[in-house]
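Changelog-linked ticket: pantoate example.
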Amino acid sequence: MLIFNNKADLISHLSTYKNNKSTIGFVPTMGALHKGHLSLLEKSFQENIITVISIFVNPTQFNNQEDLKKYPRTLEADVEKIKTVSDAIIVFAPSVDEMYDGNTESAHFSFDGLEYQMEGSHRPGHFDGVGTIVKKLFEIVKPTNAYFGEKDFQQLQIVKKLVQKTGMPINIVGCPISREENGLAMSSRNGRLTDEEKNKAAFIYKTLKEAREKFVNESIEAVKKYVYDAFSTHPEFKMDYFEIAAEDDLVPANTKDNKEYRGFIAVFLSNVRLIDNISLN
Ligand code: PAF
């Protein structure tokens, strides 16, 4: 299995395929891989001649240094998991210096307002960090197709906007959320929950599904109130936000229009911040 830590070596290796006009599928990750990541890899592996996965905990997208410190780094175990999909997958696992050349700072992006909503307003600077690293990675890998999970739906829309604005010829593929049997959206952060907390966290998706049912006949205000009330009876959760927004602009909506809507939630359970979302149409 090929593992590159150095971008020049990876670029040189991939250039041989580019000359053959092979398609490159790319799955950017921060490691601590779970079945959700593996499903992205499987899709990429089926749809492209070559698949590259990056494993890089990107410091500039963390607005909380404690969160960055605690983020699991499990490269050896990740490589074993990747092999279960295929050992032909190419791994790129650079250091912070390799990616940032001693200047660990974000560039500033305009994503036409997508960056100010929800995660953007609750995690200042987060999407500048994501935009910075995704652009750097795209410039190195130059993928044909890049795969992102819908759990981070706002990130997915922002990456589509990044590609549109920079004119990079990359097809961004959004993939459905992978869930545990109890409905909990798969996330590397779930590793910080005890089994008991994971059971409790099933309440998040259960409530989102109830919100989807209510959305058919009730106003946005009533659906939001329903979700806030439901969580207020479960004091183990601390609500960060629940919003209903159109998928295209992500601006929290007050009235229903002829658009595709999603419900977006961020809650703390035992100091672990969990996000999820659901299509409401
Ligand atoms: O979704 C993630 O894991 C990260 O935000 C990404 C896209 C790999 C950028 O660091």
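Closing comment: Example verified and attached. The chain has ten helices and nine strands. The CA atoms of residues 36 and 127 lie 21 Å apart.
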